[in-house]
Amino acid sequence: MKPTVLFSVMRFMIHLLGMLIARMDVEGLQNLPDTGGCIVAANHLGRLDVPLVYYLHKRDDIIMLVAEKYRKYAVVRWLVEALGAIWLDRFNTDFHAMRQTLERLKAGGVLVIAPEGTRSTTGGLLPANRGSAILRAKPACL
Question: Can you give the pTM of this predicted structure?
Fold first, then answer.
């Protein structure tokens, strides 16, 4: 997916905000590929996890899945569209989201997914759902 002007502006705003409010030392980013499709599975502990992905990862082809419950908020809908994220029905098999994700992975995108499917309210790990493993098992991801 080719980044839009809006995507670039949002990315700039996230970087600016990140530099203003925090000093981060991150280890291991060199292990993420610069090109080609891949899946990054991460724990989801808070609302800042999503902008953190865009702050830390320099690629423009990030694939982010967003829970359907946030569609009711106009600002979130606008952000989802601006960042090229994909709406996901977490409670039913969402073939549309699966197809979109697989197409973008096949085109070389990087999927960032929280295997738990939601934020942890305890600060600890939650049981993982099967979505990221199913996506990895698809031939388009190999």
Answer: 0.77
